[in-house]
Specification:
- By secondary structure, the chain is an alpha+beta fold.
- It has two domains: 48 residues; 128 residues, Glutaredoxin (3-Layer(aba) Sandwich).
- It has eight helices and five strands, in the order αααβααβαβαββα.
- It is globular and about 70 Å long.
- 22% of the residues are buried.
Length: 179
Amino acid sequence: MFRARCYQEKMKSLTRIALRADPHSGAFAVKLFMVVTLCFSGELLADDITQSSGVISKQQLFLEYPNFEQTFNRYEVREVAEKIPTDVRVLIFFGTWCHDSQREVPRMLKILEAAGLPEDHIKMVTLDFSKTDPGGLAVVNGVEFTPTFIVFRQQGEIGRIIEKPATTLEEAMVELLSE
């Protein structure tokens, strides 16, 4: 029902754009072509189809988004990952639709696995396009960009890696932990 309502609203606004042009002009034909193309390209419904949010497991992520698993399998962890202690906890906020998340989240998961971090020390939260989630975790944690990796140790936040680090993820983690 929600998807149909969103689709109808989008169609109304596009139809208004197309109808503003004189039907005898070339501009009308161009605008009409654009409306029809957008309607059938899937772009109108992309946010309704590909957008999901909430807590997700690594297994569920890989099952629903195979490109994350492919990146995970291809990534080669650098030796510096051995310096990451197993008593840290990582809260990961990301968008399955976000190119930075598609690149960095699988890498971080591979790094944490190589470091021997237990899976129950990792919590992943997918965000929608407005960078919110149903549980409100993103708002509580002040997340503005994706991905955001929040690292905790002894119940306190010790730092964040936001979007793409200046160096490698391994080096950024070690740097956070050494502060």
